[in-house]
Design brief:
single chain; 8 strands; TIM Barrel; binds adenine; binds zinc ion; 17 helices; eight-stranded parallel sheet; 337 residues
């Protein structure tokens, strides 16, 4: 049998929790800073990487929004997306559902169209080059008022045929899902899929709100749902996919040691967990690295690794036929290796 890392890299998989702005590597940050003449407060790539020491979500977000300042043109967004897809391809990724944060860019004065047109161009090129399919999920920043997300949804009107869903991200504590009830209702009326970060740092009550008030199709993270047995049972019963991000959890001190990560417990409980990278340029690993390090740390069996790969397709927003095809490809790979 192939060693664990080789087996994982070859395993067909989908990424369901990836902030494209969080895939901006320091090298590309410097390149964009030079070509757009935007100053950054670092002298070298090493200095940037040294700054990536976080003790909570907010520590990270402060530096992540600063990093996004170098993104100015459609070409920047396209190049950033293409760099991500090249890495996903090397990691055995066949499909991705990527988040982007329009308000991070419109609040700096960029027209709404710049980020989305650039990303759509990158996604199209990735499909041509690698055969990787992708979908776009537009996230609202929860530290801002709901009026800002309502304006963002309005700006997105001309693009709604190319946006699969909406999400909720940024500072979780103090910004419960209920703050965004109206904008998510409007998004649902437009036929968009619904995701929300919940239970990363926030309490199980925020996961309840995401289910009952936002009517989510997926929960992003969801770690703290495990503190509530009835909630856990409900997530199992309703087959809600959790997009779990182990290396992010480690870097943001959601867990202090990867050996304490709940991924195996989630699978044991029957939760539909998936394994994702969140903001790989900041957290030290793309999707395969997340699989490998988690498998080693919590002793995932080969069957559990295969289950995570299958969950990534069954929890995706692909049509039923595509899901069946991808799941069959996971089974065929597992049978051969
Ligand atoms: N934005 C980018 N990454 C995030 C995360 N892990 N949680 C909340 N907001 C984010
Ligand atoms: Zn996230």
């Amino acid at each position: 049998m192939a060693d664990l890392a080789t087996f994982i890299r070859g395993l067909p998989k989908a990424e369901l929790h990836l902030h494209i702005e969080g895939s901006l590597e320091p090298e590309q940050m410097f390149e964009f800073s030079r070509r757009n003449k935007i100053a950054i407060p670092f002298r070298s790539v090493e200095e940037v990487r040294a700054a990536y020491a976080f003790s909570n979500l907010q520590d990270f977000l402060d530096i992540y929004y600063q990093g996004a300042n170098v993104l100015m043109t459609e070409e920047d967004f396209r190049d950033m997306a293409l760099a991500y897809f090249a890495r996903l391809n090397a990691d055995g990724g066949r499909h991705a559902e990527i988040f982007f944060d329009p308000e991070t860019h419109t609040d700096r004065g960029l027209p709404f169209s710049v980020a989305i047109d650039g990303l759509l161009a990158g996604m199209k090129e990735a499909e041509k080059t690698y055969g990787i399919t992708s979908k776009l999920i537009m996230c609202f920043l929860r530290h801002l008022d709901e009026s800002s997300s309502l304006r963002t949804l309005k700006s997105a009107e001309p693009y709604l045929d190319r946006i699969t869903g909406v999400g909720l991200d940024s500072s979780e504590k103090g910004h419960p899902p209920s703050k965004f009830a109206r904008v998510f209702q409007a998004a649902r009326e437009r036929g968009l899929k619904i995701c929300a970060h919940a239970g990363e740092e926030g309490p199980p009550a925020y996961v309840h709100e995401a289910l009952d008030i936002l009517h989510v199709d997926r929960i992003d993270h969801g770690n703290r749902a495990l503190e509530d047995a009835a909630l856990t049972q409900r997530l199992v019963r309703e087959g809600i996919t959790l997009t779990v991000c182990p290396l992010s959890n480690l870097k943001l001190c959601v867990v202090m040691d990867l050996r304490d990560h709940p991924m195996k417990r989630m699978l044991d409980l029957g939760l539909r967990a998936t394994c994702n990278s969140d903001d790989p340029a900041y957290f030290g690993g793309y999707i395969a690295e997340n699989f490998i390090r988690t498998a080693e740390a919590v002793n995932l069996s080969r069957d559990e690794i295969v289950t995570l790969a299958k969950n990534s397709f069954t929890g995706s927003f692909l049509d039923a036929e595509s899901i069946a095809k991808h799941v069959a490809s996971v089974d065929a790979y597992a049978a051969k290796h």
